[in-house]
Amino acid sequence: MVLTNQNRLFNIPQGIVYLNCANMSPLLESVKQAGIEAINKRTCPWNITIDDWFNPAEELKKLFATIIQADSENIALIPSVSYGIAIAAKNISLNANQKIIVLDQQYPSNFYAWKELSKQTGAEIITVKRLPGQSWTEEIIKNIDKNTGLVTIPNCHWTDGSLIDLELVSQKVKSTGASLLIDASQSLGAYPLNIKKINPDFLVTVGYKWLLGPYGLGYMYADEKYCETGIPIEYSWLNKKGSEDFTGLVNYQDEFKKGARRFDAGEFPGFIHIPMAISALTQIVEWGVENIQDTLSQLTNRIEQKAQQYGFVTPKRNNRVGHMIGIFFPECDIAALKKELHQNQIYVSFRGSGMRVAPHLYNDLNDIERLFQVLKEAVKT
Question: 0.85 exceeded by the pTM?
Answer without folding.
Answer: yes
